[in-house]
Amino acid sequence: MSVETQKETLGFQTEVKQLLHLMIHSLYSNKEIFLRELISNASDAVDKLRFEALAKPELLEGGAELKIRVSFDKDAKTVTLEDNGIGMSREDAVTHLGTIAKSGTADFMKHLSGDQKKDSHLIGQFGVGFYSAFIVADKVDVFSRRAGLAASEGVHWSSKGEGEFEIATVEKADRGTRIVLHLKSAEDEFADGWRLRNIIKKYSDHIALPIELPKEVAAVEGEDKPAIEWETVNRASALWTRPRTEVKDEEYQEFYKHVAHDFENPLSWSHNKVEGKLEYTSLLYVPTRAPFDLYQREAPKGLKLYVQRVFVMDQAESFLPLYLRFIKGVVDSNDLSLNVSREILQKDPIIDSMKSALTKRVLDMLEKLAKNESEQYKGFWKNFGQVMKEGPAEDFANKEKIAGLLRFASTQGDDGEQVVGLADYLARAKEGQDKIYYLTGETYAQVKNSPHLEVFRKKGIEVLLLTDRIDEWLMSYLNDFDGKSFVDVARGDLDLGNLDSEEDKKAAEEVAKSKEGLVERLKTALGDSVAEVRVSHRLTDSPAILAIGEQDLGLQMRQILEASGQKVPDSKPIFEFNPAHPLIEKLDNEQSDERFGDLSHILFDQAALAAGDSLKDPAAYVRRLNKLLVELSV
């Protein structure tokens, strides 16, 4: 054994301690995944060496045959996994094996509940990698040396998976990493060649480099022990290079788990080879669940990039637009240079062509899912809907296609579930309806009960109910769908077009003319609070509402700007009243200017509350209301 120097004991990061404890208990029912995770890490380490060696061939140190070896010792109850990949320095070992450097780690930890079943899903989304070793081992030793460092700069990391780990400098002749798992007393089933072989075939057959197990052969004369030969037990070819007809669903699913570091099967996938002007292969996956850091824009995202089957880059984000950042997979190009960089990717016209084609392929995959697997698409929308809503603003070329994938709540439903597609909405539109009507607001209850919907209920016209914070911003980029324009029912002077009869229109004009005097009195009473006062065509039951000017910001956008500290443009609402409502009739007959003013402001404030807005002067509203109550009680 090599002499250890500079030995020290260090504590795990708090998050690592939490993760280890929960993972060991939550994932215990699927303990064999430890080998899949360690092999996946080893494969990544080999990929990184292969890439770095393109510029620095000396890193291969004369050993260009890259592989992973898995061995076991029944007597010692150990399983050993060794790769000749990039390896780790002492600093790397402390960083990678003692801390979790993922953005949003603390936020992720808050969501862990202690419920083993629920937490196993979360942990799977987070990715456990190396720490899965402690599911079956009560002690783990790691011996590693980074390629390019001297043999004397090897590192030995050791831990029992509790609060701390030891690290020391050791002599290590070969580059790469060797992990020794000291199995728990109840886990010696894994110190078995047949068991290990089956796990590798099940989870890691797709790994594109040899995974070797020892094969015992007859003893050589004069030697005590039989010689050890190594045999490759996996297919050792890149899965995406094989014809689709030769790849089983189970293989696609396991490859996804390797690429995405996810524990669950993907929702859907698309495997495609392009030949002609451009030559590349893509294998794209839609995850079943959203990753915990989906809304952290700085989080790593993108596809694994290979050039002529040589790994070049993790998280190559130039191949898909940001609103599709949840898509996982690989792209393997024959047209790019092996020394391609992120900067080159951002400027290369080949990338623009590939990005356009890959984006359409993802959208086609989602269209197919929505058409053929509606229940699965509901699950997709719950997880990724808000991200998809970023699409129309970012991807003008595919705006119509994205719009067809959007889902909304509507007045046809009663639970606020976002399941209505625009094509479905138009398919059941009223005869003569040439608009898509929608209403935005803070909550489903608020928009569902909004006075703005009264005329639509009366006429049986469906209205989309939009309550996500992003919705008003989204609709500023969606002008029409399938030739039908969108109309915000709370904005401007509502015109139902052919849905109003000529008799209705004529009657409305006559009523408006008869109430011109009341309009002028209200303008005087409300003064600078309003931009305009008019008779409403929207109301059937409520006395008054506030409409938004055609060019003004709605409540959602105002609140977003205020929350981000930006200046909100000045705007005033339009006060609309229902001339047939008893309160308006009483108001019209009120002789006292003071009482008329108080009642007008009360109606204005109530309309603001019904719209989900806050009152600018709540004390004045309470004072006027109390005054009115006192008068009524006398």
Automatic annotation (TrEMBL):
Region (A): 1-342
Cell membrane in keyword set: no
Region feature (C): 560-634
Record localization: Cytoplasm
PROSITE patterns recorded: HSP90
One matching Pfam family: HATPase_c_3
Keywords, sorted A to Z: ATP-binding, Chaperone, Cytoplasm, Nucleotide-binding, Stress response
Keyword rRNA processing: no
Residue span, Histidine kinase/HSP90-like ATPase domain: 30-187
Domain of life of the native organism: Bacteria
Recorded family membership: Belongs to the heat shock protein 90 family.
Complex and partners: Homodimer.
Its biological purpose: Molecular chaperone. Has ATPase activity.
Record's protein name: Chaperone protein HtpG
Lineage: Bacteria, Pseudomonadati, Pseudomonadota, Gammaproteobacteria, Pseudomonadales
